[in-house]
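Internal ticket #5521
Category: modeling
Description: The requester needs a full-assembly model to guide mutagenesis choices. All entity lines are attached below as received. Residue total reported by intake: 555.
Assigned to: D.W.
Attached entities:
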Amino acid sequence: MFNKTLRVIDVQRIDNAPLAHLFLETLSLDFKPGQFVMLRPCQWEYDPFWPRPFSICTQDEHNMHIFLQIVGRGTQKLAYLQPGDEVDCWGPLGNGFEFAVDEDLLVLAGGMGLAPFIALSRKHPNPQKIRLVFGHRLDLDCYPWHLIPAEVEKVALQQETQTALKDFEKRLQEEIFSHSGKVFACGPRPFLQVVYKYARQAKADAYISLENKMACGIGACLGCVTKTKQGYKQTCVHGPVFSVHDLEDF
Amino acid sequence: MSVDTRVNLGGLQLKNPILTASGTFGYGLEFAQFGHLKELGGIVVKGLSLKPRQGNPCPRIVETPCGMLNAIGLQNIGIENFLKYKLPYLPFQETAIVVNLYAQSEEEFAALASLLKKEEGIAALEVNISCPNVKQGGIQFGQNPVLAAKVIEGVKKNAGTKPVIVKLSPNVTDIKEIAKAVIDAGADILSLINTLGGMAVDIWTRKPALKNVFGGLSGPAIKPIALKMVYEVCSNFNVPVIGIGGISCIEDVLEFMLVGAGAVQVGSANFKRPSLSFELVHQLPEIMRKLGISGFQEWIGRLKT
């Protein structure tokens, strides 16, 4: 567990898209894909009040790369940090995705949900074992698609209309029903709800990463809980990755 | 100049005046990776009830300017699980472990006190008669001086020698009225304030931001209100007070003590920086030296008015 103040190395905003890449000083931390860090710029002082959770996109000896979507005040401010600005950071947090290196993985990503799978595919010693299906609303070049290793069997599908969304839902259903190994998914809630529905129908060994709002990230505030078969569990410490068969009321 | 950070609140000895507030510090162990728990003046653990509670449906928290609203609804593992699985791992010999108690009736409160009176690892009981987020118990006691007094009498009768702290709600017309009632009923220490009732709405969904609709406001936004209420209670009653409400930096700690608090609890600020409470403890000697005080008896309640 690291708890450090890191400097911003670079921020790259994507033209005409509410997306940004934040590069921080590296932590050289050992993390599992799907684990996350809490980030809070020191200049925020009392407002915005909470830190924000982000999965780690990539990390090397030079920097930690966070891929973020601007959805509110906090992410807006994060996307406009300047090189040299300081950010409090603690992590890695949560459970992350568990897998064996020789098993076939079906990875389903929706929009920003691509971020943890960039880490997963780059850290995976056998990326050819991964089949990645990526649904996105904005043009593909807005996303760090090029960071996915070439060995990954990957499909990107854009949804700009309701019809395209319906087709994508059908595609997800087919992918889940035709896959016999583990399924991982991350993305917006409506996307995860589709995955949840079909993965449970198919009795698939499927895991989804939740994006609940968090105040602390360490299991203390009980604000990020999700309903499981064992009652309300904190998404930050018992997740963010949950088996679809453990989740209730999702 | 050597400084002495110790404080004494009506028999409750603390190595320093910085405690962590219930509901913001889990069962303490969650924060062990961010500092040495034993360095804290004390840890007030998440409100505990006789039986485990699931709490309220989500969303339960929402960020607000300089603060947050919560409607957790006292989700907790229950007193027995706490004593069995959490307390043994807390440094109770080196710092004060305070159990925050929640119940729905006088009898349940008394039963909790009775369970804890012989627990050596527990330094004091904090009776939560001020949670705004539960349908029964909580604030219904905290807003009614007669009921509050009955609860505290019952707890005192069953708590043995454990100091009884009563956590007061700011959601009252006159906090002095409820303070007097619980002092007369035997409260050893008062802690204030709990959260202020509030709500937030989303114009795009036309829904309340919290499933519970109402929640409790905390964070720096409530500090001036808390400071006033602590001052009001301290200047009217001769009872040790623990100040709570938006404390986020070392100056805040000294402010609450200046108006009369013998100690403080750091709450929501633990979320914005999990190492904060530990850092405040480390910053105490320096600010005491800067203020020219060697001990807190030279500072507590010394506001010049």
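Resolution: model delivered.
Comment from assignee: Chain A touches chain B through 29 residues (CB under 8 Å).
Ticket closed.
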